[in-house]
Amino acid sequence: MSNHHHKETFITKYVFSTDHKMISKQYLITGIFMGIIGVFMSMLFRLQIAWPEKSFGIFEAFLGHHQDGGVMSPDIYLALVTIHGTIMVFFVLTAGLSGTFSNLLIPLQIGARDMASGFLNMVSYWLFFLSSVIMVSSLFLEAGPASAGWTIYPPLSALPQAIPGSGMGMTLWLISMAIFIASSLLGALNYIVTVLNLRTVGMKMTRLPLTIWAFFVTAIIGVVSFPVLLSAALLLIFDRSFGTSFYLSDIFIQGEVLHYQGGSPVLFEHLFWFLGHPEVYIVILPAMGIVSEIIACNSRKPIFGYRAMIGSIIAIAFLSTIVWGHHMFVSGMNPFLGSVFTFTTLLIAIPSAVKAFNWLTTLWKGNLQMNPGMLFSIGFVSTFISGGLTGLVLGDSALDINVHDTYFVIAHFHLVMGVSAIYGMFAGIYHWFPKMYGRMMNKTLGYWHFWITAVAAYGVFFPMHFLGLAGLPRRYYSNTAFPLFDDLSDVNKVITIFAILGGLAQLIFLANFFISIYKGKKASQNPWHSNTLEWTTPVEHVHGNWPGEIPRVYRWSYDYSKPGMPEDFVPQNTPLFEGEEES
Amino acid sequence: MTALLYVLLAIVICIAIWQIASIFNLKSTIATERDNNTQGILFALFGVFFYGLMIFSFVKYSVTLLPDSASVEGETYDTLFAITMVLILIVQAITQFLLFYFAYKYRGIKGRKALFYADSSKLEAIWTIIPAIVLSGLVLYGLSVWQDVMDSSGAKDPLIVEVYAKQFQWQARYAGADNELGRANVRNIKGINTMGVDMTDKNAQDDIPTRELHLPKGRKVIFKFRSQDVLHSAFMPHFRAQMNCVPGMVTSFSYTPNITTKEMRLNKKTIAKVDGINKIRAEKGEDPYQFDYLLLCNKICGASHYNMQMKIIVETPSEFNAWLKQQKTMSQIIK
Description:
heterodimer, A: mainly alpha, Cytochrome C Oxidase, Chain A, two-stranded antiparallel sheet, two-stranded antiparallel ribbon, 17 helices, 4 strands, globular, B: alpha+beta, Immunoglobulin-like, 2 domains, 8 helices, 10 strands, elongated
């Protein structure tokens, strides 16, 4: 690898790197590693749900003293669902997805030599790394990790008497998340400043690829909402350690009255969801940006309704900050507030519908190049629609009453933000792998990976809706205490089998990813014939991205199959041809 | 140590996958025309799988769903739910069809040029305005249902019942002859006064604590929820009712039961569901199950969250009154 600027040691190049491309890879690898843990946990608790209280050798191998003769304990079950949620939402789909692609693509696609502050960027990654280490280390505690659900509602999360995971496990969870939030804020500020200030000549905001728009707006939501979670966490730490009563009041547990008075758990719910809801858009918007880019490129068509796409990103982002109450319709808050949140929540369906229809229209009369990234992008549109539509049920306060906290909710959010965002992430990895590693991933393995995952994902989450409609609550260690649910055990077995199939399919991806880094075919400079600027940089990474001048930009990034052009793509740095009108 | 073996096994599988792939096509990385063709057809097949799974699930799992609502308010809930579901399924069926059809139909062919079609304000207006209109309808309808369900101020002679949650059991307290619940606070919990009722309050004397929830058919029941330790959620799915129980505050929910337990046992859907359950139970050699309404905990509350339940019995007003008369009042229990 050549270097034009200054000598770098192993440490400054691979460990404490300030180069956004390296940081992006660090985010990705850490995210994948956390993803392996998170997905593996889901296999474990799915086994327990399908075959309750049965003995499994794999539990004996991994659960230490939290199992007895291969039978999982209820406490570790709750811990597994808690940490699975935390890891997947924050560590994989926030840091792993947004961290990877914002870092990789923002400088490359806007034509900048690096992030506005490479140092902050490095600090951001290492804080993320630290928080990951703390979160993972909490798994090895004697009493187990945090187990009050990923939403950590007090008083359960505040009282070790209530659940063992609320001792040291919750302390580590809170510390880890506080560091995570710091990391995420540093990252987000950097993204915002970079997009606003470092765009190359000619790169007007209205010429930015939709990926950048999505990352930019995501960063803004992050800056607006993450600090609120930090304060929520701080107040919880106060309640736990210093005897304050922000969230606690009138509690009698294990034979004694606690001193807390005047606090309210509902306050925590408000603060938590003030981040918690925007968080799902922090997860899904970058995936939407990635998918828009990949669908346009592989359809060989301009993205349909570019301005509407930007408008809907902004509309979704704005609305996302005023809908948090839809998680709290039955929390005991005033029903009138419920009405307001129903209204704002269902409004989100409008920009979401615009996006879905625009993607469909982009595919229409395209010339679809079925690269693995494209398959995952089409898959994204499918799961986003399937999952999004049930939001009409859950966002409606009246209808939420009977499906709230049931498996219907699990099916909904896993499809709309879990599977969809993961698809977006996979799409991005397959598409930009050549930019990251200078090599290509294997296509056939990509196809197998997609199809098995796609079948498994619907096999898991489609039947799951019915569990919820049958009244089955989430976070039940076992359904055997209710004969009412006996007839659901078959559904649960089907779901678990698909889940294991889907989990194993990820081994195909891991094989493809890690071995392609070393053995993949060398990439050409612009393998997908894309218009965006990252493909004008050399395959071998250089510090500063372009060895010479930064290219100027003359057009938007979606001039695919434009009539009168010599080829079916026109890179953004191509000046307008004579007589050509800008699209 | 066994854990390490599992990890090694996963790594070996990964390497094997790569080796198998590389025997056949190490160099293949970018979709060719043949790939476009195969993958396009696979999307069409996936569409078939998708609709098949949907239809299969509906046919196979419908019997497991909750039977008809057992409360007056629940009936309006069910109507709104049905309308919303129909709407969702229509949109789902159309959009997913278009998606898989387009993926199949426009699979790439060498030399074909895609249509340069970047914008159409007309189309975009259509799919902004139509969802907006449909959603306005849904919102208005939903809010009116929400208003009906949550507002119990106009109820005539409602029955007031407190539902009390703690790790990991439920209790109930009827307001008694004065139909007014006595004050309560966890600081009063002592001995048999497990709900912390304030015995100095005159309204508390005739309150009736119970371990079962009996409800009269045809009378509005206003529930007052309290929790002693952590958050719980009182979930009564057969009545389309749910409310969290929050330490430090009293929450409330109301409905009018309109089908007694006995009547519900004779409901066609209930019979079908119970038959299905009992078939499974017979195979496992377990006692047959008889239908009962239930109150379940639906907010994670600790290790035995999965087994926190209370039976609900809906009966005729006369049966209910007879039952209530047999129960002891607070002043009889605590001398």
